[in-house]
């Protein structure tokens, strides 16, 4: 018996009946890759030196070289290549002789973790092709000279974040020859807020500089009547910090295949940055005794904490909310996720998530500390991370609350988020993760109640304006304070704020009423709204309709919120607010129009002219809430492309691009681009102005190189108008 046990212990196969391979959740671990992978028996005369072989690989990884400059990674104190996903980078391979594409076949292999698999994105073979597709893995030769070739490599815009190992594989008739394991060619791949296809794409360069590249910040603390601020060093570019941040994902045992998803990364990081239940980075302490550790207020930044944890693998003592938030910010910015540190003044800690803080009073009217479990923090710090939320309906991307301070468990662990700020503002707290808890932190009511001797509970006071009085973060590019309270909530005491609270209740969140009755929705009134189809630059209307199916007369307080959103559903800002009162006659339908003028949305319009509308109504007589939301896209004009001349390889022909300005304004500093793989290289032309209603015509002469079906693609770009495209298929004949 003991012999069997020892054999099993020696093998230590972490397998079970459900999976063929153990879980691949460590970036640090590696597998052995064979340098010679034979196809069968190798003949006696086979000499690998007779075939193409790699002498050296140049990664262009110095801070002043092209890769780190173009990928905004030149500030990382790390000798290896660091690139951002979805954007091309360059390497050079020196062979033992000139590369002959007709007979030589080689490819690149990127591997991560111990059990690389192609379908998991942990083994990536890259064949050399002619064209790089944006946001997809690929490589093309950009330069050949003597025995060397220069490659441009594109990584996927959804690829795993981490440190990849690089091999060059060469095909021979008898097997595959690979380069040996060389740590100098390791490549870190990070999130890319500069890449439109990346889930963390942020369109404002100043914001990217602040929320990704700024390595210092400000923490606001104190209380609502005495706001204090202090600096914090994030230090995301310091030596070993990138490795320490990748180690946190290993520590959290996040499967490597999930590490391309910022939602998953934020969720596991919010757990691993606190030490509760997983021996994570920081041990919290709020009891004013910090024996055998550092007092939370003594830390000046994240670097010491992360490096100590990386070396000791033991929780660092001690932290409070701003320490957890500071370290979390470093982690997010280091990996390339735009992030900012938030302070909420008068922050509610709602113990039972019933959207109200219950303060129980004794006979004398004092708070009964034994019964009262909820608390109000003078201030509380958390983080916001910027990302799309494809797991939620449109309109809920953008800033997401993530909080590593251990307060309450979520799915069995101390973690919080990501929760959409937009969903919190409008009371749509049914959307994952932990939105009810964050909603309560910024927008709960405080209910003071007293139990009488006969057991009856008497509510003495309801304070609706104390919680979340001020929510702030550091200004972009400056050290001042930016008030972002309106991102989270409507004005205290306003009709809209009460509506949002009641919407949160409607979406199934517990809220004890005075009689502990369950919430009954309004069944005898229906509400809907329609958005008129409109062309970019024109006014349009939103029609709100009510159907009163009862014999009662009602009045409805209606609130419409129009938001400009990215095509990914990420909200940029609110451009339209409209409150109105409607009288609903018995057994009748009524409709109300809200006009949206082009002047209200044009100045803030985003790439694809997407809007998202929330409409909320409260039936005043019953207090019942009706809520609905819809997205719409304006019609954007397109570019027209046509060709002139014979479409024959090797002969000159023309492409003509036309565009008519549909806006009621002159377009300024307009850039046109035209390209066609295999037909013409990218051409660019700038136009100072395009007056309203005028048509621009641009002719480009070119000589197509190859026959076959080709595509011409044109784009127009200026501040007032983006995502204007045109394309044309062209059949190029042989001479």
Automatic annotation (TrEMBL):
Domain Transglutaminase-like: 313-406
GO BP annotations, alphabetical order: blood coagulation, fibrin clot formation
Region (Disordered): 1-33
Required cofactor(s): Ca(2+)
Annotated family: Belongs to the transglutaminase superfamily. Transglutaminase family.
Subunit structure: Tetramer of two A chains (F13A1) and two B (F13B) chains.
Name this protein carries in UniProt: Coagulation factor XIII A chain
Protein's organism: Ceuthmochares aereus
Classification lineage: Eukaryota, Metazoa, Chordata, Craniata, Vertebrata
